[in-house]
C-alpha cells in the first residue's frame, strides 16, 4: 500500500469505505435478507472469477446483475466480494488490488441494484413470474438500464484509479473504455434477467445457472483469442527487434512504416482485419534483412554488384520466413513485393501495374516516405512536404498514384512525427552505410538540351526514391 501515491491510497480507502456503507443496512435487517441466495450467487461468481483469466465485470456480470435483480441493494453489493478477494492478480501489490476490486464491484453492484429498484424493476419482475408475463417489457427495460449503470460505474471507478495511481489524465483514462465494455454488459442484462426469472421458477436455481453456460463458453473463446493475439504480437515484436539489432541504421523504421501504411489504408476505406494485416505488413516488410549478412548491411561505401544482388534478395528471404505464419494473410504478399515498381523496373520479379498486390503498393509508398523523412547517420531528414512532392513526382512510374494521394490526404488530416533513428556508432565513423537511400535525379526541363538523364536504381533497403 505504501508503494502507491498518496492520492491513490486515499482513493482506494474511500472506495472500500463506500462499499462498507453500501452493505451497512444489512446490520439492521438481517432477518429479511435471503442469505442463501447471497451465498450461492457469491460462490458462483467466485468460481468464475477464480477459474478464468477473462475480465470479471465483462464476462461474469450476469451473476452480478442477477444479484441486483433478486436481492436488496445492500445484499447485492456482497455478491462480488468473495470472488474479487480470491481471483488471481498478475500485477503487484496483489492484496491491494484485490481489496480495490472488491470495493469497486460492491459499489457498482449497489448502484445497479438501486437503479433497478428505482425503475420499478422488482414489481415488473414479480409480474413476469405470473402467468402471461405482462410485465416483461418493463422488466427488460429496467434490466437494460441496470446493466448500463453497472458498466458505467465500473468504468468510472476504474478511471479514478488510473488518474490517481498511474497519473493518467481524466480524458486519457476514460477514452475508449465505454465502447469496449458497453456491448457485453448490455447483452448480459437480459441474461441476468433470465437468471432472476428462472431462480424463483419451479425449476429453481439450477435452471438459472444454466444461463451461464453460453457465457462461460464465450469467456473461454475470448480468453483463447486474447492469448493467440498476445502470441501474435510477441512474434511480430521479436522479429522487428531482431531486424533493428542487425540493421541499427534503420531502427524504428519498421514501426513507422506500419503506422504510415495504416494511415494510407484508412484513407482507402480499409478496416477491420485487413487494416490490421496491412499495418503488420508495414512492420514486417524488412524482416528478410535477417537473411542478409551483417557485414553487407553495415558496409561503409558502395556495394559490389554481387553484394547488391544479395541485398535485393531480402524480400524473398522475408517471405520465406513468414510463409508458415497463418495469421499474416495478405501481409506476406506485401513483404515479398514491396520493392516492385509500377513501371516493372523493381524487384524481385519485375511486376508492373496491378500485377503488384495492393498491400505491396501501399507499403512501398509508406516505406519510401519514412525513409525520406527520417534522420539517419548519413543524412538529414527531408521535410514532409518535400517528401510528399517527391512521391508525387515518382507516382505512375515508381508508386501507385492512388496510394500517394491517400498518404497526402492522411498527412493533411493527421500530420506526421518521425522519430530520430540515428546511431551513435555510425556518426563516429562518419560514413554512410551500404544501403543508404539515394534521391532520383531531378526531372529534366522541357527546354534543357541533351538527352534525358536515366533514372537511378531504387534504394535496396528502405525504398526511398
UniProtKB/TrEMBL annotation:
Alphabetical UniProt keywords: Membrane, Transmembrane, Transmembrane helix
PROSITE patterns tied to this protein: HD, HD_GYP
Segments crossing the lipid bilayer: 63-87, 99-119, 139-165, 177-200, 206-225
Domain HD: 250-372
Region (Disordered): 421-465
Skewed-composition ranges (Low complexity): 443-458
Record protein name field: HD-GYP domain-containing protein
Stored SUPFAM superfamilies: HD-domain/PDEase-like
InterPro entries for the chain: Cyclic_di-GMP/3'3'-cGAMP_PDE, HD/PDEase_dom, HD_domain, HD_GYP_dom, HDIG_dom
Residue ranges of every copy of the HD-GYP domain listed in the record: 228-423
NCBIfam families membership: HDIG (TIGR00277)
Domain of life the protein comes from: Bacteria
